[in-house]
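<instruction>
Derive structure tokens from the sequence
<data>
Labelled lines for chain and fold
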Amino acid sequence: MTAPNGRALLHLAAALDQQAAYDAASHVELAQLAERGAFDFVTLGDTFARPGPDALAVLARVAPVTRRVGLVPTVTTTHTEPFHVQAAVATLDWVSHGRAGWQIEVSTSEGEARLFGRRHAAPADALWREAGEVADVAARLWDSWQDDAEIRDEATGRFIDRDKLHYVDFEGPTFSVKGPSIVPRPPQGHPVRVVDATGGHARQTAARYADVALVRVARPAQARAVRAELRERAARFGRDPDDLRVLAGLTVDLGDGEHAAEPGHGGGGPRQTAQGPLYRGGPVDLADLIASWHEADAADGFHLTPVEPRRDLERLVNGTVALLQHRGLFRTFYPGSTLREHLGLARPANQYAVAGGTS
């Protein structure tokens, strides 16, 4: 589907992050609100640097009480076992019926390393290379079960066709994995991989492995340049650049009433802050800003982080999103049921089935 300007429809995602929120009800309410607005997916941040609930576990709780919106927790690949990571993300894809993603993140501080006591902190470039290896081995493990590996033949007592299970035999500088996975291949084949590609070290990993790259820049020309760079790098890795979605990251403060964007916000673009681009204004001007970036081919969509989660997300859905839908720039309903379908991404072929290999 295309917008009136001839470009593909926008993709929109929203962050559910809340300070000191441990109850499931608040996360459920926000995810359901985002689903009402037909957002592609919601994210929930996580880090070893501060206390808080496990993002992946929280979104596993959200999965049964939502039906269409994608669920993308942050998963830190540093200090964690890749085999466990892929199994947990695959499980989220199963319990959500194909709506899972994971935002790949690294842990760079010595304080976080001491929580585990396995190794010291490492430079960011090394950690992002390792994160790419985790993304690679996760895909191999998801493919280690062919789609028809489960036969469930009660007459013979055979549950699995062992010829359709595969060892991955991965050997890397910091970990090794034999496989196969303990979880059957996820409904999406590969749950969607998201990387914040704002920092230079993460950009290579995003270009090679991400399905969605997030970029926090304050001007459309900057976003357009980063998007072009990511697509060029993806092509060098042998990927089709059209399989990579680039979303502009924007923190939004929609206040308590309709008003024009403050100086430095809206119109010409948001204001850059230490935390990233910030828009402060009303839903109408925000819709204009998003539409102008879309017209300029700056990004494939936006990842929006509400300053006041309940208030701002409600104003996004009832104001900004409604206006974008009215202008024909954003969907009015979900055309499919999986996150890959929302993003217009094909389900990946199983690399072992294609190769015709055996375990």
Summary: The mean pLDDT is 92. The chain is about 35% helix and 20% strand.
